[in-house]
Amino acid sequence: RKEVEQDPGPFNVPEGATVAFNCTYSNSASQSFFWYRQDCRKEPKLLMSVYSSGNEDGRFTAQLNRASQYISLLIRDSKLSDSATYLCVVNNQAGTALIFGKGTTLSVSS
Amino acid sequence: NAGVTQTPKFQVLKTGQSMTLQCAQDMNHNSMYWYRQDPGMGLRLIYYSASEGTTDKGEVPNGYNVSRLNKREFSLRLESAAPSQTSVYFCASSENRNEAFFGQGTRLTVV
Questions:
Q1: Which of A50, B79, B82, B111 is the most buried (most CB within 10 A)?
Q2: Is the Cβ pair B48, A97 closer than 8 Å?
Q3: Shortest CB distance from A97 goes to which of B40, B58, B102?
């Protein structure tokens, strides 16, 4: 099993739609979880950290299920500007490095 | 605030040539990383350094060497470049288990 797995998509949605991305991770000892966003030919940038209690930032909601080793990202009221690749990130077994999923591509159309 | 600076931004090498990718961060982070990104493969960890003076192999270390010169700088060396090393290389830094900040990337082509 890969350390971090994501559905690669692409997800093609109209503006205003709600879309959810899922991610599973293999290391039960992981302590840090993030969602990053990467635009075409740019570096990845932090979208939000993921906390055990779940957290929300505007239209974005992240949830963590430690028992199932599962992370999710929900985007409500999608905008054209949300079109990007979303990367699920988890720290490694030793807690010394960040491991990235392959990313899920989102395309929002008008 | 520069964050993470990588040089060069673009490079073309011939097979067998060597080169060093430079990375520096000004955030006083302990951890630094080198990733490569290929289409359909996502970001794969080449090497990382959890603190000054230590380096560890990541998922795809073969063909690369690294040096943690000091707390600020972490370089990646290709001793004998191969076409399979054509990729986009990202350097990143982080503090403890917090978020990582990335440089703008180096686009390397090996012909």
A1: A50
A2: yes
A3: B58
Which residue of A lies nearest to B33 if distances are taken between CA atoms? A97
Given a contact cutoff of 8 angstroms between Cβ atoms, the answer to whether B89 and B38 are in contact is no
Which residue did the predictor score with more confidence, B26 or A51? B26
The phi, psi pair for A80, rounded to 5°, reads -55, -35
pLDDT tens for A58-109 read: 999 999 999 999 999 999 999 999 999 999 999 887 778 889 999 999 999 9
Instruction: Give the mean pLDDT of chain B.
Output: 94
Distance CA A13, CA A76 (A): 11
User: Are the CB atoms for B22 and B74 separated by under 8 Å?
Assistant: no
**DSSP annotation of B84:** G
